[in-house]
Amino acid sequence: MADLQIVLLNARSDNFAVLIHDEQSGKTASIDAPEAGPIAAELKKRNWKLTDIFVTHKHFDHIDGIPALKSAFDVKVTGPEKSAAETGLYDATVADGDRFDFAGHEVQVLETPGHTLDHVSYYIAGQNLLFSADTLFALGCGRVFEGTAAMMWDSLKKLRALPDETIVYCGHEYTLANARFAVTADPENIRLSERLQEVETLRAEGKPTVPTRLDLEKQTNPFLRADDPAVAAAMNMSGRPADEVFAEVRSRKDNF
Ligand code: ZN
Ligand code: FE
């Protein structure tokens, strides 16, 4: 099985869309559709046809491009069962544990609620690829809009359990702001302070900080480290349950 080709695209002000393409079958999927224009332009440039869109959640900045892409391509939209009725945009729906085929690659659906209740992440184990959208960001996590902090912490633990070598594509370029907060939540973490500098350099050069790797996130992302004594100590919450520490980290970031 040949590797999927992957293209990271900027869309809107700080969203990412990711195209995954299988050369042999000619199939191309977009992970979310924040904006039709940049996706259509990239497809044209590469002479690819869009065959699929995998939607992570119902927020406007992840689905806005769908109607225009549907009228331009014969595309199948797959999205979370929980927001199917509300959005009215999906041709197929998925729920936790579902597995489906994309060009011979098995795609696994992981429900990761918290940011929204419908949020799913897509995992392609055979390619070590995770699309975590607005659940897990590089050095951050999504705001908890619809779920609870405990629910978000459970979702992050589910993603954290994937293999270290997993390549993570998230939904937004928020990494610099996340890094500036992260060093306050985990101040003794040397690898994190190095990473802040790396991220500053990348952004100063106008380069994306995504994708990231799960092992690096486990070492440096305070939202994946709420059960690490160092993060609990920085929150003045030593010995407290991890979901409570997580809630405190999340609320400090909201007010940072
Ligand atoms: Zn969102
Ligand atoms: Fe978003």
Description:
It contains ten helices and 14 strands. By secondary structure, it is an alpha/beta fold. It has one domain: Ribonuclease Z/Hydroxyacylglutathione hydrolase-like (Metallo-beta-lactamase, Chain A). The strands form three sheets. The chain has a six-stranded mixed beta sheet with strand order 1-2-3-4-5-6, covered by helices on one side. A six-stranded mixed beta sheet has the order 7-8-9-10-13-14. Strand 2 and strand 3 (28-31) form a beta hairpin. Helix 5 (149-160) crosses helix 10 (242-254) and helix 6 (175-185) packs antiparallel against helix 7 (190-204). The radius of gyration is 18 Å and the shape is globular. Residues 59, 61-62, 134, 171-172 line the site of fe (iii) ion. Zinc ion (ZN) binds at residues 57, 59, 115, 134.
CATH class: Alpha Beta
Please trace the helix and strand order, writing H or E for each element.
EEEHEHHEHEEEEEEEHEHHEHHH
Radius of gyration: 18 Å
Per DSSP E runs of 2 or more residues, the count of β-strands stands at: 14
Q: What quaternary form is this?
A: single chain
CATH architecture: 4-Layer Sandwich
Question: What integer is the average pLDDT?
Answer: 98
- Name given to the CATH homologous superfamily: Ribonuclease Z/Hydroxyacylglutathione hydrolase-like
What are the low-pLDDT stretches, counting only 5+ consecutive residues below 50? none
Structural class: alpha/beta
Shape: globular
Compute the number of helices.
Answer: 10
At CATH level 3, the topology is: Metallo-beta-lactamase, Chain A
Largest sheet, order of strands side by side? Answer: 1-2-3-4-5-6
Helicity range of the residues?
25-40%
Bound molecules: zinc ion, fe (iii) ion
Count of discrete structural domains: 1
Q: Give the terminus-to-terminus CA distance.
A: 45 Å
